C-alpha cells in the first residue's frame, strides 16, 4: 500500500487500521503488533507508533504496559456510555445551528444532506446513508464555532461508526425512520425550538443505542 499527502503518514496509517477495526477485520481484544504493521505497509516503526496513539485517542484501541496495543472491546456498558455522550453532543450542535442561522442559505447544506439521505434510502445504500448522517454534524461545526466540541466529535466518530457498522444490516429497517426524524429535526431548527430538538435527538439516540446493543454478539 502506498500512502500520499495531504494527510500525514501517521494519520493515513491510523485511518487504514481504523477502517479494519470498524469493519470488524480486526476483532475486539486482538493485538496490533507494531512490527507486523510496519512490514505489511512498508512504513517506519515511528509512524506506526504515532498512528497507534491516534487510534487510542479515538478509543479504537488501548495501549497496555508490556502487552502493547489491542482493539477495544465492544460491550453494553461502552456502547451505552458512548451513545449517551454522542446524543448530548448532537443536541449541542443542533441548538447552535438553531440559534445562529440567519438565512435559508445557511440551512442549504442540511437540505442537501437530506436529499442525499433520501437518495441513499432509495438505493438502500446503508454505508453512504450512515456516512451522510455524520456529515450532518460536520455541517453544524461552523455554527457551534467550538474547536473543543469539534475535536471531541471527530475523535469519537470512528467509535460510533464501528457501532453502526456492527448493526449495519439492521439499519436498513431504520432508514425511513431516520429520514422522518431528520425532517422533524430540520423543522425544530428552523423554529429555533431547543425543547423539540432535545426531544427528537433524544428519541433517536435511544433507538440507535438499542439497535446497536441488539446486534452485540452474545457472550
Salient structural properties:
Four Helix Bundle (Hemerythrin (Met), subunit A), 219 residues, 3 strands, mainly alpha, 3-stranded antiparallel β-sheet, Arc Repressor Mutant, subunit A, 2 domains
Can you offer a commentary on this structure?
With 219 residues, this protein is mostly helical. The chain has 9 helices and 3 strands. A 3-stranded antiparallel beta sheet has the order 1-3-2. The longest helix is centred in the middle third of the chain and has 25 residues, at 76-100.
CATH architecture descriptor name of the largest domain: Up-down Bundle
- Going across the major beta sheet, what is the strand order? 1-3-2
Structural class: mainly alpha
CATH-assigned homologous superfamily of the largest domain: GntR ligand-binding domain-like
Which CATH class of the largest domain applies here?
Answer: Mainly Alpha
Q: How many separate helices? A: 9
Task: Tell me, rounded to a whole number, the average pLDDT.
Answer: 90
Biggest β-sheet, characterized? 3 strands, antiparallel
Oligomerization state: single chain
